[in-house]
Each structure stands twice: as C-alpha cells, then as structure tokens.
C-alpha cells in the first residue's frame, strides 16, 4: 500500500510507512521525535475534526481508554488534534491482525481460537466496567503477537450508552457481519452487543467464515435477523461439537439470552474444550453502559502539549456489575443446555445432618482428651500440682526434593529463578516483577500484578500466566519476564 503522507512530518511525528486503512482513517508506523520511539499513529480522515460532536466523543473515549490499563487493550500514549486532523498515538505492536492470520493460515485450531477470545473477553469486560462499548469487535481490530498475546484496538469509533448507534447519515457504524441484530433497529448499544460480536469472531476463527454471509449488505442483515447461525462443527468437522451450543447462545438474536459478559462467554468456550461441567448462566437483561467521565470534558483548540506516556493503574475487572445489574453466583449445572436457571438444589436428608452432628461431637471429645493429656500430665504420668501449664506442640516437616524449573530457550537469566524474554526488559525490573508476583499469592497461579521499575521509576501492570512449567509475565512497554 502507498500513501502520500509517507515520508512527511505530522507535528512531532515522522511518518515512515502505512500499516492499514479503514473507514475512519489510516494507521501509520511513525517515529516520535520528542520521545525517541516508534509508534502506531492513527490519523482520522475527512472532516471529523470539524464535526464537534464526533471530535468531542473521540477525545472523551481516548481519555477513558488511556486510563483502563488492561493488558489486552492497546496502550494509548497521546491523542488530540494537529492542523485540523484528529490523531491517536498508540503502542506499536509486532504482530498481525486476525484477518491477516485467517488469510494466510485459514481457520485456527480450536485451542488457539479460544485462547485469543479469552484475552479479548478480559479487555471487553474492563471496557464495559468503565462504561465503554467497543462496538466494532472484528478480526481486523484484534492484534496477535508471535507469542500469542492478543490486543484489542480501535476504540476510536466506540460508542457510549447514550449514543443512538447510527451516524447522521443513518449508516450503522462497524462491520455488518459482526453487528448484533438489535443494531439494525437502531437500539441503544450495550455490552451484550460486544458479546455477540466476539461470538461472531470466534465462529470465523473456527470455520474461516462469518456466521452470516451474503453478497450484499442487505442479504447479510436479513440472515442475521431472521436465520439461526449454523453449527460451526457442520462447516469444519475439526471443531469440537461442544462449542456449537456455546456459539448458539453467544449469537442469540435476543440480547437477554446471550451470556451476561464477554468473560462468561470465554469461560464457557474454555469449558467446552476441557470437558469440564459447564456453568449454567442466568440470562440477565442486556445492560446499558453509561459513561461518566471524571473531572468534566477537556476542550482542545489547537496542537496538543505532549504529556508523556500514560501510567496505568491495573486492569479493571468487569465481572461484578453493569449499571446496577448484579450477576448471580450459581452452582454448576450438568443438565441439558438451555437458557435460564438450573433446577433448585435438593434438600439434604435429615439423617445425614444427624450423623454429621455425631461426628462433630466425637471429634470435639477427642480434642478435649488430647488437651487434657498433654496439658495436665507430666512426663511421669502423674498429674502436676504446680497449676495449669502451657504446652507447645511442634513438628518439623522435611522439604521434599524437587527439580527446579529451567528457563525456556531465548530467556536471559538474571539470577536465581528469574530471567527476561525481551530485549527491552531489564534484570532490575525482572527482579521487581518476581518479588511482586510471589508477594501476591502462591506460585504457579495466573494473576495480574503491578511492579515498579528501578530503571524508569514507573510502575507497570504485568499479566502473569503459567506456561511450559514456568510463569511468564507480560506487560509494561513490551516487557517479558520469566519466573521459574
């Protein structure tokens, strides 16, 4: 692709190459001369800066996204307007989008597809908790690095809950193949719409085609509104049939019948692969996101002052509430798939409770005898006359021998039990990440932590997951830390 902006300067940016172009503008590889780094620079085309409503929404949403700090949302460095053009300065990611992956390799293995969708589900839950609906989830807007780490990009056309969902010209925003049926009725956008779009993305990753196809926009819309989605296993026999029911619910016409969050959808897909007993999710009314920006709206009248890299406060977890709608915690249900709650649990037998009470009494009696024997008898077996005494019982547990894990190929060791996996990661920061991870809980578990870099003086969010017998933490500015 060629572009007349390549080789020119845009404010402090030196534009090097065109990465991609969409309906809202173009994305370039650019060099930031102020901060001495390469970035992904999105320039919005047309008269968007002259449209006061659009420009104000664009700036407001950039502020919200920049504050999210979820590892799977592409970090925003800066945004604003220069010479009448709105721009967005983002981290430059070494990877490809899912559309490129599908074109080069075809459908993904089910495990890989579900792993990508799980990461994007975390990103969407964080956005929904902050009041943002992405509204353009599609393969082109999901980037995957060579290590399999996924990023959700392009919140530039996202809508908040108060927006109608249509432009002034009456054209639905986003890509038709991934729009939920309610969009075609100009219904208010909601997190359930993103759940539908994420389901459509998983369908295409598994089969190589969207759930509803057609030669024209009208034929795609009719199919999405009137026809049930085909079972993905009927298109690609390599797809586990257990995923058919998961995608049927994720692509439900009625928003109320879909999963209550992107995270629940991703969890159901993982459960279908592993064969674990699925959790029956109660269908909730589709929540509506409301944006409440803190501190009012900032107006921009000219070129921006560059505020430096954003500091992120850690991932937002959206699994609690959407606009006052609380998700119910319900027990596992192994019955037939369907919408609605599982049957109520059966009450226990009264004889079981009586037996349990007898056991508790016997245990208490044994404990009492032990206390008497060890606390009131001396070594000769006679009762001590010196009054009550305190006896401390101790035992020594010998550690079991184990073979320490070894770092993976390409890892540069920094010391005992820690190494780095990228050229931009310092050993000082790796030691800080290891200390923060071990302080946050038991080793071997996946969790997100915040670690301070002695080199930059900045605290970064790192997402740590067990892989190949070690813990790999990713985040910050493309940092990779190996804990073993």
TrEMBL record:
Biased composition (Pro residues): 401-411
Matches recorded under Pfam families: Pkinase
Protein name as it appears in the record: non-specific serine/threonine protein kinase
Transmembrane segments annotated in the record for this chain: 353-374
EC number: 2.7.11.1
UniProt-annotated binding residues for ATP: 42
UniProt keyword Lipoprotein present: no
Superkingdom, natural source: Bacteria
Span list, region Disordered: 292-317, 383-414
Domain Protein kinase, first and last residues per copy: 13-282
Keyword Transferase annotated: yes
Biased segments, Low complexity type: 383-400
Protein keywords: ATP-binding, Kinase, Membrane, Nucleotide-binding, Serine/threonine-protein kinase, Transferase, Transmembrane, Transmembrane helix
Lineage, top ranks: Bacteria, Bacillati, Actinomycetota, Actinomycetes, Mycobacteriales
InterPro entries: Kinase-like_dom_sf (IPR011009), Prot_kinase_dom (IPR000719), Protein_kinase_ATP_BS (IPR017441), Ser/Thr_kinase_AS (IPR008271)
């Amino acid at each position: 692709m060629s572009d007349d902006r390549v080789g020119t300067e845009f404010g402090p940016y030196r534009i090097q190459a065109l990465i991609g172009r969409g309906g809202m503008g173009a994305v370039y590889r650019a060099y930031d001369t102020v901060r001495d780094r390469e970035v992904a620079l999105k320039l919005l085309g047309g008269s968007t800066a002259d449209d006061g409503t659009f420009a104000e929404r664009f700036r407001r949403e950039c502020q919200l996204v920049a504050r999210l700090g979820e590892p799977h949302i592409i970090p925003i460095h800066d945004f604003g307007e220069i010479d009448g053009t709105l721009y967005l300065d983002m981290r430059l990611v070494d990877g490809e989008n899912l559309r490129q992956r599908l074109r080069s390799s075809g459908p993904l293995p089910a495990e890989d597809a579900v792993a990508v969708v799980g990461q994007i589900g975390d990103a969407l839950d964080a956005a929904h908790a902050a009041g943002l609906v992405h509204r353009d989830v599609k393969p082109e807007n999901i980037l995957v690095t060579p290590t399999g780490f996924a990023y959700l990009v392009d919140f530039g056309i996202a809508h908040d809950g108060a927006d109608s969902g249509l432009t002034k010209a009456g054209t639905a925003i986003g890509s038709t193949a991934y729009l939920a049926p309610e969009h075609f009725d100009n219904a208010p956008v909601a997190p359930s719409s993103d759940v539908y779009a994420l389901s459509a993305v998983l369908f295409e990753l598994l089969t190589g085609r969207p759930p509803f196809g057609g030669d024209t926009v009208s034929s795609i819309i009719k199919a999405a509104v009137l026809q049930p989605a085909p079972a993905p296993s009927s298109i690609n026999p390599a797809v586990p049939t257990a995923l058919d029911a998961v995608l049927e619910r994720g692509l439900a016409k009625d928003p109320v019948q879909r999963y209550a969050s992107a995270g629940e959808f991703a969890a159901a897909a993982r459960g279908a692969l592993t064969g674990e007993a699925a959790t029956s999710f109660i269908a909730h009314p589709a929540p509506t996101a409301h944006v409440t920006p803190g501190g009012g709206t900032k107006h921009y009248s000219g070129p921006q002052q560059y505020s430096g890299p954003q500091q992120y406060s850690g991932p937002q977890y959206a699994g609690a509430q959407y606009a006052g709608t609380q998700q119910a915690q319900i027990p596992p249900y192994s019955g037939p798939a369907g919408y609605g709650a599982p049957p109520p649990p059966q009450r226990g037998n009264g004889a079981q409770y009586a037996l349990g009470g007898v056991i508790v009494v016997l245990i208490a009696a044994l404990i009492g005898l032990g206390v008497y024997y060890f606390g009131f008898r001396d070594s000769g077996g006679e009762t001590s006359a010196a009054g009550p005494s305190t006896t401390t019982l101790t035992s020594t547990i010998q550690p079991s021998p184990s073979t320490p894990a070894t770092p993976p190929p390409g890892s540069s060791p920094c010391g005992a039990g820690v190494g780095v996996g990228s050229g931009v990661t310092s050993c000082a920061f790796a030691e800080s990440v290891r200390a923060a991870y071990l302080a946050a809980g038991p080793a071997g578990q996946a969790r997100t932590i915040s670690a301070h870099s002695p080199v930059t003086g900045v605290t970064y969010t790192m997402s740590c997951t067990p892989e190949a017998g070690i813990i790999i933490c990713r985040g910050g500015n493309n940092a990779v830390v190996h804990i073993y």
